[in-house]
Amino acid sequence: MAQEYLPAPSNIRLADLMKEHSISQPELAKEIGCSKSTIGRFISDAKGTLTHEQVLKIARLFNVSTDFLLGETNIPDRKNYDIAELGLSVEAAKNLYTWRVNAEVVNPAVHKGQDPGSSQSRKGHQPSEKVGVPR
């Protein structure tokens, strides 16, 4: 089960993540390309703001969702990943989404570096067969 946090505003969430990961304000500022004072103002809630690009960089750095950073959810786990992060082609991702591949073949194929969109992954799969994680 995913870890769940107590409800908190964005500035507290960021401060908690920094403490959890032992990252200082200057280190975070360098990682996301802003000044130390920008981070300091945001954390102290003195009308400091972050750009959407900075929020995305922070989410990637701490491997949390932007919804979590913005206080929309108390569960930090990301639900969506870039196709490239998963090592899949666009065609493979489409085949997974439309249930055109056999899920029993996908896991080992992905771990071995085989594209799940390939004909090898579809071997023995009936088009009407729905396998894998339910939508």
TrEMBL record:
Residues 14-69 form the HTH cro/C1-type domain. One of its GO terms (molecular function) is DNA binding. Residues 108-135 are annotated as: Disordered. It holds the Pfam family HTH_3. This is Helix-turn-helix protein. It comes from human gut metagenome.
